Amino acid sequence: MRRLLVASLVAVGLAGAFAHAHDNSGRKTLGFGPVHDHAVYRSTRVAPSDNFMGASTADPFDVAEEFITELTQDTDRDSSSFFIRRDSYTDKNTGITHVYARQYVNGIEVADGDINVNVKDGVVLSYGDSFYRGEAVSGFGSSTPVDPHSDYCQKLTAELTRRAEARQSLYNAGEQVVLGSQTAKADLDMGVLPSVHEWNCAHVDTPFTMAAEGKFSSNDDNMYSEQALLQFMIAATPNSGLAQSMVENPSSFVEKMRVTPVHDFHGGNASPSFVIDNVPDAVAPVKAKMAFVQVPTDGSSTLQPVWKFEVEMQDNWYETAVSVMPPHRIISVVDWASDSPMPVAPVPKEPSETPVATYNVFPWGVNDPAVGERSIEKENFDSLASPVGWHSLPFDNDPASEHSKGKKSSIKFRNTTDTWGNNVFAHENWEGRNAWVTNYRPDAGKSLEFDYKYDPKETNRTESMEEARKYINATVTQLFYTGNMIHDLYYRYGFDEVSGNFQQHNFGRGGEEDDAVIMNAQDGSGFNNANFMTPPDGQNGRCRMYLWNTANPYRDGDLEAGIVIHEYSHGLSTRLTGGPANSGCLGWGESGGMGEGWGDFLGTTIRSNKNYSDYAMGAWAANRPTGIRNFVYSLNDTINPSTYKTLDKPGYWGVHAIGEVWAEILWVVSQNLIAKHGFSDSLYPPQPNADGTVPEGDFYRAQEYTAAGVKKPLIPKHGNSLIFQLVLNGMKLQPCRPSFFDARDAIIAADEALTSGENFCELWDGFAKRGLGPGAKVEGRTPWGGGIRTDDFKTHKTCVEEEEPVPTPEPGPGDGDDDDEDDGGDDDDWPWAQ
Ligand SMILES: *[C@@H]1O[C@H](CO)[C@@H](O)[C@H](O)[C@H]1NC(C)=O
Ligand SMILES: *[C@@H]1O[C@H](CO)[C@@H](O)[C@H](O)[C@H]1NC(C)=O
Ligand SMILES: *[C@@H]1O[C@H](CO)[C@@H](O)[C@H](O)[C@H]1NC(C)=O
Ligand SMILES: *[C@@H]1O[C@H](CO)[C@@H](O)[C@H](O)[C@H]1NC(C)=O
Ligand SMILES: *[C@@H]1O[C@H](CO)[C@@H](O)[C@H](O)[C@H]1NC(C)=O
User: Fold this and answer.
1) Which of 473, 488, 547, 701 could form a disulfide linkage to 442, CB 3.0–4.6 angstroms apart?
2) d(CA 802, CA 806)
3) Domains and their CATH numbers in the chain
4) Is 328 annotated as a binding residue?
5) Sorting pLDDT into bands at 50, 70 and 90, what band is 128?
6) Is residue 460 in contact with ligand 2, taking CB distance under 6 Å?
7) How far is the CA of 471 from the centre of ligand 2 (A)?
8) What is the structure's pLDDT at 173?
9) What gap in Å lies between CA 278 and CA 260, rounded to an integer?
10) Which residues are catalytic, by number?
11) Ligand 1 lined by 520 (C-beta under 6 Å)
12) Which atom in ligand 3 lies closest to the alpha carbon of residue 473?
């Protein structure tokens, strides 16, 4: 009886999934994972303990390693170890070294066992820690599975039911036609979340316990990765027919898969890994690896052995952990695709020699066609960020060249005359598929004058798409221009090669290469949206921009800079949070929501000017004055009432709504810094001098020096440029899977590191205005960002006016207890307390 019921529940879900696969309202996407109640982020300086050998002259990597060794000692487990990831780096802008460690147990990677340590001058400034510290496990397969009757699972079920009901009634009441919740509506109709949840927590007895039902020849096959992968594909595919066939005849699919072991030469400590070919609905071979993940049980957590898969599909790029043992539960899943409803080695050639291109575009700062006109803009590349300009890349890094990835004996650059360069490949993708290298892109010839017509006319319905295609030259030009401008801007605030930026060639400056952003204009796979896929450093990011059928003539999202900036910022925040090689840190809940929010905030900050104004997101493309979010970004809390506690509302389940709250909080915080430091008309720092040094100009404050005469990092002079810097620096400091508290504390820590904390009170005041003061709390967090939140509108106690002003908290280990209150749900595990 029970089995039948579950089967039909899932079947309904799958049918719904199909119904929505080709709907404009959004692609199918999954994102959830265990809550780590034991994870901590400490954002105050940690003084070395007695036996700690750190010294200001010490190698920061040694300091971090020693620190982590000490931090993990109390686990008292011979089987637990860690290794320092190769994508750790020292930030040229701040001098802070960001070190990432991954935990291993019995030689197997703990996929969500992350420590990030931020070191400067021999001192640990801050760190995040989600290492497993539960019961020891022996071997690989002996962990107990999630108990479906556990308190944890029951709470989850109750929460899920409550939210589903609340959502349903919202939907029934016809509320919220904004895009963010259309995706949620699709989730609701599909029953995707509840059914996936069923598989993970509530039911051992799913229709997919294939081995148990005799659908595989032998039970010994149970641990094979193909079966776990098939289980995931059943949940992930938007094609219900295919899902049904997989359920009915799993063996036929599994037999076609081909598993090839990969022998990684580098990773002395890496878990065994494989690639799996012929996976239904995947567009590339699936990467597979054995790992552990931490799964909460009542009061603590256990390690579950899983297959960790990286699955690239048409509309998704998933990183998922599926339990090795039947019934192959999906323990966590992150979609690297995000929607928007909407000095260096010698520089190979003198920038001045490069012929400079011109583009007829909506210039930087003009958000969309409703607020400005097109004009002829120069290829105004930043010579630090793009040393050879936007239209040049080495043959060896050129996907269109036969020399690609050949022997790199001498670097030879190819100069292009189309929208193809070291940072961005822009082109049409009317077909809406994955091919891109030979897609059409305008070629301006030797003159490099990208001057094309944009003059769309009102048409009847059948002609509207064709009408938009008439200006493909103009729109690809715009996308190429905007993409390169963002690349250069973010570069100058520290999104460079070592921190994981997007470039084909890295000029010998470190980081992984061959990962420019593939930008599809007028992508045929959807309407009224945009999305960005961020695989780890060294693999191309992919941005897909769509037409919007919200007006006649259609509107082209490529022409709305805010949408392009929002999308590109997914790449920024994903690569900076948790390190360049970890794309799994912003998957769901609050962290996934902030992934959306940073894009809105940065896009809004870029378009804003000296005269304060409220701003909407995507207003032009969506043809809706208030845009695609619930509220416009505003200081006025009647116009935008969002506070931290807003996240408790049923309408705020999805990452876009969560992100909107985060962006609003940052907007309010940023205005505090602008009130104090004024406004810079341009966010672009001055071009560097010929020797690579950066002049202060009117952009930076006067250069300061340490007592030893060493240059300190340059500090942006104005409020808008300063908050831009602090937000990016904060991304580098925060832990993997950050909460709102962690991200807030990281921004405050970034200010401490950059300005010695001179904006401590402005930042706290700003956060407190929207409920994120020091006493804000969340209880009962769930895998989708659920929980009961408490706002705190009081600023930090040292900033209350009556008291003697104390600009910064006293650093040191004694501060730990005090800081715990700030951390809301975190526990009290503090190894250096006294
Ligand atoms: C690219 O242009 C630069 C300067 O304009 C020139 O020195 C270089 O030889 C060109 N590269 C090729 C492969 O033509
Ligand atoms: C749409 O307009 C085109 C040309 O303006 C015309 O040829 C075509 O018949 C029209 N289609 C419909 C359905 O009205
Ligand atoms: C795009 O520009 C090319 C020249 O670069 C031109 O030949 C072509 O006709 C243009 N396409 C459209 C649709 O205007
Ligand atoms: C700001 O407002 C003033 C006065 O209305 C106006 O002259 C100026 O052009 C505005 N500046 C910008 C950047 O919009
Ligand atoms: C905030 O907005 C409301 C509604 O538009 C308006 O009535 C009120 O005066 C505004 N408050 C301030 C302080 O500007």
Assistant:
1) 473
2) 11
3) 6-34+145-335 (no CATH), 40-129 (no CATH), 358-487+509-578 (3.10.170.10), 644-682+712-823 (1.10.390.10)
4) no
5) very high
6) yes
7) 19
8) 59
9) 12
10) 567
11) no
12) 1
**Other Cβ atoms closer than 10 A to 214:** 8
Does the reported pTM lie above 0.70?
A: yes
- Angle subtended at Cα 625 by Cα 727 and Cα 675, rounded to the nearest 5 degrees: 35
566 C-alpha vs ligand 2 centroid, how far in Å? 36
User: Quick one: tokens of 515?
Assistant: 């990962």
- Residue 269 CB–ligand 4 contact under 6 Å: no
> Half-sphere exposure of 362 toward its Cβ, with a 13 Å CA cutoff?
25
pLDDT at 818: 36
In whole numbers, what is the pLDDT of the chain averaged over residues? 81
The Cα 543–Cα 338 span in angstroms is: 9
- Per-residue pLDDT reduced to its tens digit, 630-666: 999 999 999 999 999 999 887 777 788 899 999 999 9
Cα(443) to ligand 3 centroid in Å equals 8
Q: Check residues 465 and 186 and name the one with the higher pLDDT.
A: 465
Site to substitute for ligand 1 among 347, 349, 397, most atoms within 8 A of C-beta: 349
CB atoms within 10 A of CB 589: 25
What residues form DSSP beta bridges with 358? 378, 449
**Type of residue numbered 141:** G
Is 605 within 8 Å of 615 (Cβ atoms)?
no
Residue 614 known to bind ligand: no
Residue 817: per-residue pLDDT: 36
Which of 613, 626, 636 has most ligand 5 atoms within 8 Å of its beta carbon, as the pocket-test mutant?
636
**Cβ of 354 less than 6 Å from ligand 1:** yes
Q: What is the dihedral of CA 230, 279, 224, 106, to 10 degrees?
A: -100
List, for residues 82-98, the tens digit of each pLDDT value. 999 999 999 988 999 99
Gap between the Cα atoms of 480 and 511, Å rounded = 23
pLDDT value at residue 768: 98
Residue 416 DSSP SS3: coil
3-state secondary structure of 622: helix
Q: Which residues contact 268 (CB under 8 A, 6 or more apart)?
A: 83
Q: Are 642 and 582 in contact (CB under 8 A)?
A: no
DSSP string, 76-113: --TTEEEEE-TT-EE-TTT--EEEEEEEEETTEEEEEE
Alpha-carbon Rg for the chain in angstroms? 26
How many angstroms does the Cα of residue 366 sit away from the middle of ligand 4?
Answer: 15
- Out of 49-53, 384-388, 590-594, pick the least confident: 49-53
What integer pLDDT is reported at residue 333 of this predicted model?
87
Query: How far is it, in rounded angstroms, from Cα 123 to Cα 47?
Result: 7
3-state secondary structure 107-170: CEEEEEEEEEEEEECCEEEEEEECCCCCCCCCCCCCCCCCCCCCHHHHHHHHHHHHHHHHHHHH
Backbone angles phi, psi at 672, to 5 degrees: -65, -40
The DSSP-derived string for 337-403 is EEE-----SPPSS-GGGSPPPEEEEPPTT--STTS---EEEE----TTT-TT-SSEEEGGG-TTSTT
CA distances, 178 to each of 36, 193, 628 (Å)? 32, 21, 6
pLDDT band at 218 (very low <50, low <70, confident <90, very high): very low
Among 371, 606, 607, 610, the mutation site with the greatest number of ligand 4 atoms within 8 A of its Cβ is 610
**Contact, 756 vs 808, CB < 8 A?**
yes
Percentage of residues in the chain having pLDDT higher than 90: 54
Angle at 31 between CA 87 and CA 670, to 5 degrees: 65
Residue 52 β-bridge partners? none
Which residue reads 């894009």 in tokens? 599
Q: What is the DSSP letter of 423?
A: S
| Helix, strand or coil, per DSSP, at residue 332 | strand
Ligand-binding site membership of 570 (annotated): yes
Check residue 426 and give its pLDDT: 98
Q: Which atom of ligand 1 sits closest to the CA of residue 354?
A: 5
Q: Is 38 assigned to a binding site?
A: no
